[in-house]
Amino acid sequence: MKPASTRRQDHRPGPPPPEAASPATDAPPRPSGVRHVVVALALLLGIVLYLDRAAISVLAPAIRHDLHLGPMAMGGIFTAFVWGYALFNLPAGWLGDRFGARRVLAGIVVLWSAFTALTAVAWSLASLLVLRFLFGSAEAGATPTVSQSFSRWIPVAERARAQGCYFAGMSAGVGLTPPLVTFCLLRWGWRPTFAMLGVVGLLWAAAWYLWYRDTPEEHPSVNAAERALLQLPPAASTEAGVNWRKVGKSRNLWSILLMYFTYGYTGYIYITWFPTYLMEARHLSTAMAGTLAALPGLLGMVAKPLGGWVSDRLTESRGLTFGRRSVGMFGFGLAAAVVVPGIFVSNPYLAVVCLAIGDGAASLAHGVCFAVCIDTGLKRAGIIAGLMLTLGSLGNAASALAFGFFLQFTGSWATPFLIGVAANLAGTLLWLNIHPEEQFA
Fold first, then answer.
1. CA-CA 20 to 30 A from 274: which of 18, 42, 214, 313?
2. Is residue 441 included in any domain, yes or no?
3. The domain that contains 168 carries what CATH number?
4. Residue 255 covered by a domain
5. Residue 322 lies in a domain
6. What element of type H or E holds 412?
7. Which residues make Cβ contacts (< 8 Å) with residue 236, sequence separation at least 6?
8. Dihedral sign for Cα atoms in the order 341, 344, 346, 349
9. What is the DSSP string of 173-199?
């Protein structure tokens, strides 16, 4: 028989075995997902942006009828937007870098929504020219400021897919505009339609200003794990001036700008001339052409975030330069390859598929282009994006002029498309000179 003291020791509770400890108490906290909400709001902004931008294309016949405007006058109204957009990309990018995306982006959306709503009271060609110029000037700040926001909120491994989601919102806006705006036009007329579109933008601006903060450190819902994940430069660093001499002499910068000029030329084809091409060159009915003209936008909704996701994955596994260049070169190269049969194939539906794939292939690189602006610009991402968009706008203008010139003087649809093929090939080669790791600021 054991002694009593020994028996008491046998009944004492010992320390719990190691496996009984709760693993949850030792696991590091998961990063909060506030940055994903920033991306979701940017995607919604892309929808609103293109809904307001493309609405006038649907409403143009009614506007021309009421205000007694000819085709040339309507073309001038379209061009007024382009020039306003081109002139204010860089100043708006600087404002976003200097004052932060919360105030600047909310103010930009309020301005363009006001100009959208004011279009409802336009009474003449002159009033429409002024309003569209001011509308384009305000919209010019959206994408550079979104890039500035992403430079604060999105880590390197997620930048391209975040930009892809934003531009997918634009593609969704292109696809949603015809049915939504046509419904409003038939129900209420073109003037109330512009007024209602303005209200949508104001609602987005209010939500952004109330919820968004310029840095993760300022947002109450961001935990320490997400702040550590981001590891982004402090906001105070934006107060320093820009070394324009250094930036202007950068071969890397000029490669980025010229690359996006080529993208601006080819992408604008599908926004402006593609429906007319389907009707006049491919002899499709108006209804069929309107339906098939949505295909590039639908492909862009998938291609833009997909290209960003692939670029981010390749960046993680193969490095930043390979991750950005490979997607850019593949997208531009494939676009050049499929557009050629799209021009010359006799079957109109196969032509539509080839040309739509061409636009979708180039769209794979769209988000990557702006990820490069963040990679190289960091705290100056808004300025670099503004410069790039300015060159893209010049590409837009070159595209519109090239089609008008060749159609009027030669009657050729193939020639301006072939210039687009050459632009894609030039853009592919320019990607070889782009170094995302070389930072300007």
1. 42
2. no
3. 1.20.1250.20
4. yes
5. yes
6. none
7. none
8. positive
9. HHHHHHHHHHHHHHHH-HHHHHHHHHH
CA pair distance 201, 357, nearest whole angstrom: 31
pTM above 0.85, yes or no: no
The residue range of the domain holding 209 is: 33-431
Q: How far apart are CA 325 and CA 176, in angstroms?
A: 32
Walk along the chain (441 residues) in steps of 10 and give the mean pLDDT of each run. 46 48 58 89 92 80 82 73 83 82 93 94 91 91 87 84 87 80 86 93 95 90 83 50 68 92 88 77 80 83 91 91 95 95 93 93 91 80 82 84 77 89 95 88 57
Q: Do 361 and 310 contact (CB within 8 A), yes or no?
A: no
Convert 207-261 into a string of H (helix), E (strand) and C (coil): HHHHHCCCCHHHCCCCCHHHHHHHCCCCHHHHHCCCCHHHHHCCHHHHHHHHHHH
Residue 19 lies in a domain: no
Cα 16 versus chain centre, distance: 56
How many domains does the chain divide into?
1
Q: How far are the Cα atoms of 69, 193, 215, 253, 370 from residue 257, in angstroms, in the given order?
A: 36, 36, 28, 6, 11
Residue 332 burial (10 A CB sphere; 0-12, 13-18, 19+): buried
Dihedral angle of Cα 405, 409, 414, 420, to the nearest 10 degrees: -20
- How far, in Å, CA of 233 to CA of 22, rounded? 37
Determine the Cα–Cα distance for residues 360 and 414; give it in Å rounded to an integer.
19
